[in-house]
Amino acid sequence: MSTSISIRPESGVYKVFKHLKYKPWYALAEFVDNSLQSFISKNGKFGETRPYCLVEINCDPNNKIITIEDNSYGIAESEHQRAFTAGRPPEDTSGLSEFGVGMKSAGIWFSPNWTVTTCSLDSSKIYQYKFILDDLTSSDGELVPFISEAVANKGFTKIELKELHQSIKGRTLGKIKDHLRSIYRCFLRDGSLVLMFNGEKLAYEEQRILTARKSWESIDHPDNKSEEWKKSINFTFGNNMKVSGFAAILETGSVRNAGFSLFRRNRLILGSDDEKYRPEEVFGQTNSYEYQRIFGEFYLNGVDVSHTKDDINFGEYEEEFLDKLREAVNSDPLPLIKQAKTYRSRQLTNKAIAEFEKATKEVTKTFQETLGNSSQNTEALIESHGNKDYDVHTQSANYIDSSQAKLATKIEKISSIPVSIRDIDFNFQIKYERNDNSLLYKIEYADDESRSVASKIKNLVIVISQDHELCINALDGSNRKLTDLLLMIITLVITEVLLTVDGNNFARFISKGFNEQLAVVTNTVKNYVN
């Protein structure tokens, strides 16, 4: 064998790879693909069978180095010319190594200076090739390997990426792990791949599936029994293209976890981790229930993918694919879209309860920091309006608007919120109850003195229905929606009380009218959308 190899095409082509629109996890996946395919093709062919493909990835952000090492039997000497030349696919393109570009494009995208060290299981030699981008240009694509004798460790490939173009640190490291475990979930599930990242063994966490009755039928209906909302999906489209897999509804709604993942050859192509595939034909708008609840995995045969293996090329058949997908997902006897639109969880998890408590504490601190019990705050607020007869709606809106950014994070089930407005000392308590969910909130006076119009002390309890649709929808994990909802309710309560003090005979109808009209409007909009 010659001591050097030529990796033409024109070496200038390699510089283009630096500008590809990779994401770090898809670029790293190119190396994992090669390792997996080598293992699948060669396991057992050298008189040795290994229990699984081991790929170890280590990122050193401080020194800007990434290493990828596997036990996939190495690259045979006869394969070197093809393996290191861009655009030279393997003889068998039915696996994960398909285009003959991945290792080269990903390597140069990451680094101008990287090495490949490999030893085939049936060889006594270790070959090390250095890819220095500037040298490739000057040598017209000629690579000269450093060759050494293999002593013990055989059947491996190690890639070292140095002087990284891309900064890989902080949150990016976490995202890489999450995406890699998502992309290779099929191989992680069956144990054929052990994927290590900075010493951590990656595993894919399965989603919990909703078990519930049909939400649009009466619970008293004899056929409306609790069932798991998961169904098999199988159909063909286009030029004999095939789809198989499942669609389901999440037990707990989650924007991050909802959405579809599309696979080819058991490797995810589209819809990884928090970048799920959500066609509007199935998921509607971003604020819909379907968008937060439906998920699934689909395995496609007969379709083409992008050369970076991060997109499906449906071509002229995409519309047909989406039409058939929606029909399959929403067909009887388990119409997932219909259930996702109408189902409302009535059971609060510990996490949900913690969200209520946290948001209450945030609102408490917001009011204390914005107004508190300080008479100076009250006087300043009144003075800014010129007199005590300013519009209460404007006042409420102003102090709510000014407080949005001042949120805390401590937890407290029942919070006392002191507020002084127009010489009246309000003291609110927020309570959550499992009550009539047609009412968002109700007001209770804590004592007889507070009921008196003339009283300057108002001790009030705001009872909020934790089962109300607005509360359930506000449980998004960030507390922002729930905090805004609480601020709105408190504003309405203050408005009602101040109007009562001013002698407005209709003030007491504010909470009653709001709850009634909210129910009407919610149902009207829901029916229109559905």
Question: Residue-averaged pLDDT, rounded?
Answer: 83
Q: Tell me the number of structural domains.
A: 3
How many strands in all? 23
What order do the strands of the largest sheet run in, or round the barrel if closed?
Answer: 7-5-4-8-3-2-9-10
Form type: elongated
CATH class of the largest domain: Alpha Beta
Provide the CATH superfamily of the largest domain. Histidine kinase-like ATPase, C-terminal domain
Structural class computed from helices and strand pairing: alpha+beta
Distance between the termini: 69 Å
Number of helices: 18
Named CATH topology of the largest domain: Heat Shock Protein 90
CATH architecture of the largest domain: 2-Layer Sandwich
The amount of helix comes to 25-40%
Portion of residues in beta strands equals: 15-25%
Q: What does the largest sheet look like?
A: 8 strands, mixed
List unreliable stretches of 5+ residues.
372-414
Gyration radius over CA? 31 Å
